[in-house]
Amino acid sequence: MSREVHVRFCERPEVKFLRPTHPYIPMARGFVYLAVVLDWFSRRVLSWRLSITMEAAFCVAALEDALARHGKPDIFNTDQGSQFTGAAFTGVLANNDIAISMDGKGAWRDNVFVERLWRSVKYEEVYLRAYDSVGEARASIGRYLDFYNGRRPHSSLDGTTPDQAYFTPLPIRMAA
Fold first, then answer.
1. What residues make up the domain containing 127?
2. In a 3-state reduction of DSSP, which class is residue 14?
3. DSSP secondary-structure letter at 154?
4. Which residues of 31-59 are buried (b: 16+ CB within 10 A; e: fewer)?
5. Which residues contact 67 (CB under 8 A, 6 or more apart)?
6. pLDDT at 11
7. Which pLDDT score is estimated for 137?
């Protein structure tokens, strides 16, 4: 049950591309859903929200927060989950002139960056805890995502953190 969106928000020579996602997070009793807006280039979590339902509102809130704090990307990629195909979510993208890209049905390769994030969140945070409340889950996952962005090096980023990759300007390539 993973829902995803990736987009590139930083000013870079490349196309900006973002992706949302939300897996379910088990708790001592029940579960919550986590929605994340992830920058595909740097793997940085730009915004996130927890919800006790799979309604679109918390996904829209994460998207609007990312747009408000990081500006608008060129392209926003998501899977075909109802939270991301409904008018509430796609309307925010359309109203901001953001191109919408959706994964093909069963196209697991389209989700690889987000699936890596979920693996990290689940094995380095969620499966080590049994959250007693939504508030406890929110606080603990928030601490983990701060760690993930700011202190956890990524081999795919040559040992740098998502924050370092996101905030470090890329060299400008000159045309031949």
1. 4-110+121-167
2. coil
3. B
4. ebbbbbbbbbbbbbbbbbbbbeebebebb
5. 92, 96
6. 43
7. 94
